[in-house]
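Before the break, one more example. Copy the sequence into your notebook; we will annotate it together after we see the structure.
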Amino acid sequence: MFSDSKLQNPIFALILCLMIDSTLIADSNNADRRETDLPQTVDAPEDGTADSGGANDSAETGSSGLNVNDPRNLTEESDGVSSYEKRKRKNLTPKERQEIEYDLSLKKGILTVFRAETEKRYKVLDRIALTHSIPRVRAAAVLALGRMGKGGVKTLHHVIERDGEAVRQAAYKALADIGSSSSLDYFFRGIKSNDPDIQFSSWRGMGKTKDPSARDALIRQGIRSTRIEIVKASLLGLAAYQVNDDLKLFKTYLDSEDPDLQKTAIEALGIHKTRASLRILEQTLETKPELTRNIIEAIGQNTSLYGTYSFIRILEGSPSDELAQRVLAQLYIRKAFYQFGTVNVEGAFSQENPYPTSRKIRNLVSGEVGKILKKSDRRFIQKVGDKFAEDHYYLLLLESKNPESYYETYQSWVFGPYLKLRTITAPPKEKTKKGKREKLRKKPGFTPASEMEETDPANPDGAETPNENGPPLEN
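Here is what the structure looks like once it is written out:
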């Protein structure tokens, strides 16, 4: 028995070792299968340094665990394409790759145009408009040049001579926005074009040149055209001349039954930018309330003081809160944060000086608006209608009614009870929280240790402090 037990122990140990080896081999095979099923990982860079420092070891460990097939781990390359997208394209056909490359080039070109327009980089836009391979990108650059002004007129002329139909349409539209007199020959050629878009832009741009020959063509041909689109473009072109005789024509189309012609006439009155055109727009606001939005936008094109006065008159007689909010929004845009006075009493008049016996300048009509410049120091009692009132005199900047006057505005004193005062204040700014203000405070500079020994922050009064046990602190 004893010999048999001695013999069985080595056999038992051998069997146990064989079982452990088979288990380890099976585990390694399973691990290999799992590694092949998992997505591939990025290897460590081959051109890395051969230093044995801990920083390199940690960097290699981090890069070896990065999964490139996971969309959350995207690394943008110089061309804006992630490594994840590049790996997906390996399985695409050449046609699909070409389409993707085209879309990326288009997006990149449009973004470059927007950035160049924001930064006022004319040379970049010129280069894109003349040399980019995609027509839509060239058209976007051409339109950007038109919005930026007269700096790109020569480039637009070159595009019209050399480029295709779509880009030429954009170039004519840009020239119409600029309205340079050097483009007049191109406009005369454009009205004879077979392309309707080029025709409409040419008729509209001819008026902005303010050339007499262009005005004659607008009156003789454009307005009399049988095509409504050409008539609308001609109306917008005539409005740029700011001739009062054209107001009758605009009123005629304003009373037409065609809604598009009505809106075009309102837009033309806004481009006219005269006091007479503003009055027509104010009257139309009462008769055609369905065109309120167009009328407010048309008045907003007139950035002068008269446009502000029109908005104040509309605000005083506003029948709805929605209209009042639209007007206030326009006043905020032009930053008209002043005090205004509107005449609301019949029989009001303006005076030369701020006292009752001063010389009268002229009678005021109800609804006249003036910007308040000053208020008299003293109060006066004066008869207003059948009653006596006590108030200050206000110095107003009023519109001149004398057609022979050299200046369009004049200053005059008006008694307070004749006016309805309104102050336009800027919208309140959002107050920052106390915590944010404390974070924005400037941090104190570095204080040397020698100075820190002289003043103790914990005891600024210099009182004696009890000694604390323990060793002194070391730097």
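The first helix runs from residue 2 to 37. The chain has 20 helices and nine strands. Try to locate both features in your own notes.
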